Amino acid sequence: MDAKSNILSRLRVALLAPGDDSARKAAVAARLKSSPNGVIPARAQLPAASQVDLFIAMGEKFAATVTRVKSAKEVPESVSDYLRSKNLSSRAAMGSDPRLTAMPWSKEKHLELKVGPSDGTDETGISHAFGAIAETGTLVMTSGADNPTTLNFLPENHIVIVEASTIKGDLETIMADIRKSYGKGVMPRTVNFITGPSRSGDIEQKIILGAHGPRALHIVVVG
Amino acid sequence: MQITSPTFKANATAALADVNLQKAMGHVRTGFIDKRKASIDLLPEFDLLRDSAKAIKDHTLAHLDLYLEAYVEKVEKSGGHVHFAETAEDARAIILKLCRDVGAKTATKGKSMVTEEIALNQHFEENGIIPVETDLGEYIIQLRGEHPSHIIAPAVHLTKEQVESDFRRVHTHLDVNRNLEEPVTLLNEARQVLRQKYFEADVGITGANFLIAETGTSVIVTNEGNGDLTQILPKTHIVVATIEKIVPTLSDVSQILRILARSATGQDMSVYTTLSTGPRRKGDVDGPENYHVVILDNGRTKMIGTEYQDMLRCIRCGACMNHCPVYHSIGGHAYGWVYPGPMGAVLTPSLIGVAQGGHLPNASTFCGRCESVCPMKIPLPKMMRHWREREFEQHLQPLTYRYGLGVWAWFATHPKAYHFMAKLGIPVLSMLGSAKGRFKSLPLAGGWTKWRDLPAPEARTFQQQWAQREARKQEVR
Burial, B365: exposed, middle or buried (Cβ in 10 Å; 0-12, 13-18, 19+)? Predict the structure, then answer.
């Protein structure tokens, strides 16, 4: 027998799995199908408007910076202002997400945008989030040509655009949104939950920002 | 790796005398205990979530064969491959073959305790593949030729001065006059050195905090971003995980994530929680082209259905060791194998046998803090007691210890003899120690009095005092 069969049969013996295993199988199938939610913290169950406020407060608590604009049209100017305020170069890499490319970037004449994944030389990356989680100030990024995963990790500065309507109170609601978008049981190659800029506490338990990923995380909330 | 658990007592004695270790361990309180408490105080539902998470894991373990099958089916559907390994040796062989199949020369690694358990780095080195640890703490200890002393903070036993001297010794291409006094300069140097390695690697190896049956997804939880660079830049991503990492659904993993980071580092969420499903998709512009998952047993199926099954709920947060007075005093290396602290004291005898790991469950004051902070409510002291019983049954302790226990057991089961001896001995000890109220040394008790004084007993035994108290009560009535 191969390793898989050996391991599974040892488990069945140890678990005293009966010959007629229909009850156990039914329990597993039911859980996989219904994926029941457990305990949702009260702080995540707020009206939609308060959820955006909580997301911004939690994001800032975990060392991200956040600005809020009224519409997608205002994003390029806001990004441009941020780069200038941090003394960063006007070059950035961005994915081909239509929500990003439809924004009026050409108005910001000095910005030089490259569309595609990062090769490690980009100082700044710009991505569009799938959504966000208010209870922990967490961004949710899904991979694809539109938002390459390398942009989330290689540039020193990461700017993420997120629509206010996609900010949900709790993790479970975002998981349900992913199921809705990609189909039950189907996932994009990579989903990154990002809470603040990268950090390490490995030397004398002192937290330092900017370990291997971005040193700074800037969030632009739209709407 | 060489197992030194059988010489635990000597290891611990050396650790107590290690000045650098004792200094470094002083950071555990502010680094872990206070932060955990602060984050939990802000989540009133923390205990409800612990119950929920425990129930999820208990349900999963009771149906583990079926969830494993469901998981494998989903991974294969998304274009990934699953390989089962019964032993550490099997896992090493599978991983080496996967690396050779793509002509790998270098493999970057995200932080993974299971690859420590199977001693993967050593196996790579013996077979011409260069392993590069990318987590800052793992990188530091790899430079030193050491093993992790903590499951989430591998270099917790070191001071920044020690790290500085290692970086100066190894990074000889950098300016000798550079300033490396502050941790931030050390971190920046490691970032710079490792950045190139991610691009050079042919294979990226990570562990997994969870494997999700609903979607065939592996999950890593990190703060530095090194695990993600490890798994998205090379052509091949290999996940190494053990059978009990399975959870049923995305909703279930959400419950456990709420208690994992809080218990580990006192964060509401770790900076990066990454869900990976299969290799890169059609149209993707980055990500690995090959995705393999190696699922290891290595003794865990034998724990199912025994008094040690609860240990398989462990999510490797490290809270038990962060709160353990023994771990604080001696650090992780003294435990002599991969897993230190209370969780190691239970898991080590399960995986390498009580003959080798039997000292570890004895290294406990049974203060119970480990169980009280365990997010998965694992009854660690109870299981350590089980191991002590197994050790006794198998006649593994020294003869003096066994005789001593035998003598005590005889008296404990013969109350008349016990009372007689106590009545005889207590007044003598009390009289001898009456001047100072304690003994600095005592025949046959050198093991105790070498480190601390023994308090002198009261003049009368407990039973005598109790009897007198009861008699007085009767008089009052």
Answer: exposed
Q: Average per-residue pLDDT in chain B?
A: 94
Chain B contacts of A189, Cβ < 8 Å? 276-281, 284, 287
Nearest to B183 among A21, A35, A206 (CB): A206
Q: What is the mean pLDDT of chain A?
A: 96
The yes-or-no verdict on residue B138 having pLDDT over 90 is yes
Cα–Cα distance between B307 and B311 in angstroms, integer? 9
pLDDT tens digit sequence for B50-103: 999 999 999 999 999 999 999 999 999 999 999 999 999 999 999 999 999 999
CB within 8 Å of B29: residues ≥ 6 apart? none
Burial class (CB in 10 A: 0-12, 13-18, 19+), A109: exposed
- When CB atoms are compared, the residue of A3, A190, A205 closest to B85 is A3
Distance of alpha carbon B12 from alpha carbon A215, whole angstroms: 40
Judging contacts by C-beta atoms under 8 Å, the chain A residues touching residue B242 are: none
Question: Mean pLDDT, 10 residues at a time, over chain A (223 residues)?
Answer: 94 90 96 96 93 98 98 97 96 96 95 95 97 98 94 98 97 97 95 98 92 97 97
**Phi–psi pair at A18, nearest 5 degrees:** -70, 160
CA distance A187 to chain B (A): 6
Q: Is B342 exposed, middle or buried (0-12, 13-18, 19+ CB in 10 A)?
A: buried
How many other CB atoms sit within 10 Å of the CB of residue B432? 11
Q: Give the pLDDT confidence of B201-240 residue by residue, as tens digits.
A: 999 999 999 999 999 999 999 999 999 999 999 999 999 9
Measured in angstroms, the CA of B65 and the nearest CA of chain A are apart by 5
| Interface contact flag, A193 B62, Cβ < 8 Å | no
Residue B278 contacts residue B224 (beta carbons within 8 Å): no
**CA–CA separation, B117 and A22 (whole Å):** 36
Q: Indicate the pLDDT class of residue B110, thresholds 50, 70 and 90.
A: very high
The full DSSP string for B350-371 is HHH-HHHHTTGGGS-----HHH
CA gap B216, B73 in Å, rounded? 7
- The bridge status of strand A157-163 relative to strand A131-133 is unpaired
- Map tokens 């941020």 to a residue: A82
- The answer to whether A207 and A198 have CB atoms below 8 angstroms apart is no
* B175-181, long-range: CB < 8 A, 24+ apart: none
Least CB-CB distance to A41: which of B45, B90, B136?
B45
